[in-house]
Design goal:
11 strands; Rossmann fold; alpha/beta; seven-stranded mixed β-sheet; Dehydroquinate synthase-like, alpha domain; two-stranded antiparallel sheet
């Protein structure tokens, strides 16, 4: 499938996203084509990427001063210490505003790299090469960067758009199925909040997409990116409609934090659990019909996606889950802000619920 180019236009920046297979071989050309020039660059690389792939990528830098920083990408390392390490490299090597940070890795690597780029001398050029399905369909679009703290996920960060995004599906072939499911969770979320036709496409082709069958995988990535592109272009700072992208995420982030960002539950799996939780909460509040809920539930069952909260949590975890939901950065009152679903393709945002109501729901509906 030929490389596809999407242009993201926000109020203060325009940048391209390239999607295709084996397009990274044209990396230098894409930099030049998009007028991304620099004297030196810091390439921040996720340690999980196979060395052969990385060596091939690094070989493309001709006559450029390249500094490599390998980053152990996990939620626990998505912290201030990692940012400080990156900033010290930039300071020691005397980087200036005309230089560049290039992230090669998943969403965690991209978040950390982008945040460092945003605060160093008030902004370096930033190029994002997402290497996981999750990052290709979600975190590489929209300019959200950030780190975690003991108080919750992504509570420190900035909106900082990249200069260029290159999503090469070649990277996906080395991913375990669990990582592909992780990315599929965000693809499914985009379909549920924006496009029932796309949801039906996933219903028909979900198993093939998870097996990276071409051109289905590229079409799924493109459609998912196109949905997020439309939302981000309208609302780049999450003041209004962009909040719909958080469908399932208030629950998901609390689930992750409750487990201490451990390997027991990765982000995409938490999002899938969050989608199920939010959809069922929509049903219990008579916002979503039973038929529409069953479409979502059956899809999760058909693909054997994570959907049973009891496998990860028990009633003893409730207090902690609610604590992190209250800490969520999207809350601006004493209540918990949720995105719910009227029907597939029709989300509702800016809904506020008190802690007691959510506590009662989790008790009655999920921990039977």
């Amino acid at each position: 499938m030929k490389a596809i180019k999407l242009i993201i236009k926000t109020e203060n920046q325009k940048y391209p996203i390239y999607i295709g297979n084996n397009i990274l071989k044209n990396f230098q050309y894409l930099l030049k084509k998009n007028s991304i020039n620099f004297n030196q660059c810091l390439v921040i690389i996720d340690k999980n990427i196979p060395k052969k792939v990385i060596n091939k990528f690094l070989h493309s830098f001709k006559r450029k001063k390249v500094i490599i920083h390998y980053f152990k990408a996990n939620e626990k390392n998505k912290n201030q210490k990692s940012i400080t390490n990156i900033l010290n490299i930039l300071l020691n090597k005397n980087f200036n505003r005309n230089d560049c940070i290039i992230s090669v890795g998943g969403g965690i690597t991209g978040d950390v790299s982008g945040f460092a780029a945003s605060i160093f001398k008030r902004g370096l050029k930033f190029v994002n090469v997402p290497t996981t399905l999750l990052s290709q369909v979600d975190s590489s679009i929209g300019g959200k960067t950030g780190i975690n703290t003991q108080h919750g996920k992504n509570l420190i960060g900035a909106f900082y758009q990249p200069s260029l995004v290159i999503s090469d599906t070649f990277f996906l072939k080395s991913l375990p199925k669990r990582e592909l499911i992780c990315g599929y969770g965000e693809i499914l979320k985009h379909a549920i909040i924006a496009n029932k036709k796309f949801f039906n496409f996933l219903n028909k082709n979900g198993s093939k997409i998870l097996k990276l069958k071409s051109p289905l995988i590229e079409k799924a990535i493109l459609q998912s990116c196109s949905i997020k592109k439309k939302v981000v272009e309208i609302d780049s700072k999450e003041i209004g409609i962009r909040k719909i992208l958080n469908f399932g995420h208030t629950f998901a982030h609390a689930y992750e934090a409750t487990l201490g960002y451990s390997n027991k539950l990765n982000h995409g799996e938490a999002v899938i659990l969050g989608i199920k939780t939010a959809a069922k909460f929509s049903l219990s509040n008579k916002i979503l019909s039973l038929n529409e809920f069953k479409l979502i539930e059956n899809h999760l069952n058909e693909l054997n996606l994570p959907r049973d909260i009891n496998k990860f949590f028990s009633k003893k975890n409730l207090k902690k889950i609610l604590f992190f939901m209250k800490k969520d950065k999207k809350n601006n009152t004493n209540k918990i802000n949720l995105v719910l679903l009227k029907k597939i393709g029709k989300p509702i945002y800016n809904l506020h619920f008190n802690k007691e109501k959510i506590n009662s729901y989790l008790n009655k509906e999920l921990f039977k």
